[in-house]
Amino acid sequence: MNKTERLLHLLQILRSYRYAVSGERLADRLGVSIRTLYRDIAALQAMGAEIEGEVGVGYILKPTFFLPPMMFTQTEMEALLLGTQWVSQYGDAPLSKAAAEALNKIFGVLPANIKNNINAFTLRVGPPASNSLAREDLSELRKAIANQKKILIIYKSDSNKKSHRIIWPFSIGYFTDGRILVAWCEKQDDYRHFRTDRIISMKILDEHYSRSRESLFREWRASQLGKHSIRIDNQDI
Predict the structure, then answer these.
(1) Closest CA to 179 of 166, 191, 157, 197
(2) What is the pLDDT of residue 78?
(3) Which of 69, 136, 165, 221 sits 20 to 30 Å CA-CA off 55?
(4) Which residue numbers in the chain have pLDDT < 50?
(5) Strand segments (E) across the chain
(6) What's the CA gap between 183 and 192, in Å, rounded?
């Protein structure tokens, strides 16, 4: 097998082990010398794979989002670049920063003839979001969703009245003029949509909500069929 195939095979082997595996064992499974194995480990680490270990101890691949080498068509690459540009402009601050870093990584592996002519990329994203949207940080909301945790929020309605809510957040919609949090509201006993810029404060609670975010999303989506717009929660409660 060629080097690319061997590196991919090495990744698959490492993924199959829960504990550190010796370099000798890895080299034997690949059918290569121990010196070649060390070079392959170094190559994968240089590409971003979080492989921990050392000579005489063994190696283990930490769970990450590391992706093996992939081939993209011109149209697929344009879609990736356009989508990442959109997030860099309209994502909240941490997502915007991450998108810019992802763009740099994409540019770093582009062929020289494309990289040198990157300004010829004809698809562009419109004007950036407002300064207030650009500064918004939804990291804690995304964390609560990822961990399926209830949150306590103080929310300001359209008429500037404040209310306390315990909600089950499960999705965030990113739009050019703002972001919408979709959640189950315990007080209203129903799904509600909240503008994130009207959330005055929030606290992640220790309690998990009783249903999975996937089932909540499916039920919410079914409830939205036939509707042409999202109604923002403005009730004064």
Answers:
(1) 197
(2) 81
(3) 69
(4) 236-237
(5) 51-54, 58-61, 149-156, 162-175, 178-185, 190-195, 199-208
(6) 6
> Using one digit for the tens of pLDDT, what is the confidence trace for 91-150?
999 999 999 888 887 777 676 666 665 555 677 787 777 888 889 999 999 999 999 999
Nearest residue to 165 (alpha-carbon basis) of 193, 185, 145, 183: 185
Calpha distance 199→233 (Å, rounded):
11
Q: Which residues pair with 194 in a beta bridge?
A: 181
Angle at 143 between CA 142 and CA 144, to 5 degrees: 90
Q: Are strands 190-195 and 178-185 parallel, antiparallel or unpaired?
A: antiparallel
Q: What is the pLDDT of residue 236?
A: 41
Helix 34-46 × helix 23-30 angle, to 10°:
100
Structure tokens at 187: 């007080």
CA–CA dist 62, 15 (Å, integer): 9
